[in-house]
């Protein structure tokens, strides 16, 4: 991560010892020592059990949640040969042994097909199936989210749209059903969030359909449904089905939100008439109680109510109960318990979490795309992923996993660019030449409208001026402004969408995998209308995972959804078709970008080609003699 401003948080340097010490830490502040972080004597599930509300499910790719746990945390599957390995701990009760994963996945990529339940119930999670509101989900990229916990390297679980896990109530043990009470918490990123539905964690329906109010009891950390909310999102919310609630109502103004890199989010529900929401910085401090009171009133469209609850007992992570899977989150740990937890237990759990010293990348890059400007520097927000209202927007060295360098479009109206839950904004919403730009809450005013131009500039229509680096400066920290549109290098910006599309024909056509984000071998690669370009056009914020390609110079591979662009049967015959297949390093998976925009397959000496220059949806790609034609001109960025 970049460090464009001094850090504003200080973390404790040693773990608390035992429940008594955890409580003392909560009351008096973290103890400071010079020794490295160690695992706490009691894990969160030990704390809950001692308070009479034992864990019924406990998940973390980063650490043990019981002091005595010494089993696997998750399983990785290798793309090169399909082999799997369970990733365990450095020691009982400690942090993940990330070196196991790094060694096993070296030279290839890995996904996570299983997240293991550390409780005795073995409520293990696997990728969620298709449902009423979304296609089947893919497993998470195992290496997308490097962090440190307890002073050791580990990985979080990066859950962008279309990546989610689930376990049906037909298989779960111990989870709440009907109007029975339960409690839960999760540690997630406060910067990798969006306003889409719904990256949840908790108790969901047996089948992936909406069965009405009160049939879900899940945590939701997002900006979803936040119009009129106060404070700084994301907000710790409860998705209770047929409604996401900050308190008794969808927007509860005392709920001020939690925007730290790592957030502890807490929900408990007695199943009959009350629930509570809490949140805190997972790196320091105590929990704030955002709501503690009655369940929502009213009747939903099915004639169902939230009082009492009607829980079905499945477990979901990363999507809604009906598989609405357009939300995003970064997940580090979380548990579900039986019973209504005490405040003392929750406070002790928070102190235990703080004592783990979560650090490092907490976003996976976040939703959206980088915008590369003059000097190859990225459009960035001052403050190292913490920017609030009025934070200066500037140039900075591009960092792949910097949340505040990833900009999404069309949050409110058309033409907005947003990051960290706020919009790129002209200071004071004025139209004066030379006015600086900042980050500010999205409100749809003219100073927040931005339209990419054909010459690479980004224009603010309200002022008629363009985004500009003063006098062509490219140093880190150069504040951006609006200036007369002049086509100079100081106004050249590229929205780096990680997609592959033909330059010929319609620029809205992308290289796509047949099917709807199907994570299987032998799917044909084709052209299809782009679904993820950040241009401010209606729908421009949608995400098609199988249109998001990355290029690896190390092995000359072009990849999406964990697999490689591949010549069918590894053929070298002109006209052979293209498919998606497990990455295995064969000649048919090597591609070299050419100066004229072609993608050359060295094994055959042919280029990626759209037959006869066709650009219609469903046009299947092939290899063909390299001829420099528009049908072979692709842009990978």
Please explain how this structure is put together:
By secondary structure, the chain is mostly beta strands. It has 3 domains: 18-327 and 341-360, Jelly Rolls (Sandwich); 370-495, Trefoil (Acidic Fibroblast Growth Factor, subunit A) (Trefoil); 500-636, Trefoil (Trefoil (Acidic Fibroblast Growth Factor, subunit A)). It has 4 helices and 45 strands. The strands form 11 sheets. Strands 1, 9, 11, 16, 17, 18 and 20 form a 7-stranded antiparallel beta sheet that branches. A 7-stranded antiparallel beta sheet has the order 5-10-19-12-13-14-15, with no helix packed on it. It has a 6-stranded antiparallel beta sheet with strand order 35-36-40-39-38-37, with no helix packed on it. A hairpin with a 4-residue loop joins strand 14 and strand 15 (244-245). Helix 1 (18-28) crosses helix 4 (343-354) and helix 2 packs antiparallel against helix 4 (343-354). It is globular, with a radius of gyration of 25 Å.
Overall mean pLDDT stands at 84
The largest β sheet comes out as: 7 strands, antiparallel
Helix proportion of residues, in percent? Answer: under 10%
Cα separation of the termini:
21 Å
Helical element count? 4
- Assembly status: single chain
Low-confidence stretches: 1-40, 410-414, 503-507, 532-543
Query: How many DSSP E strands?
Result: 45
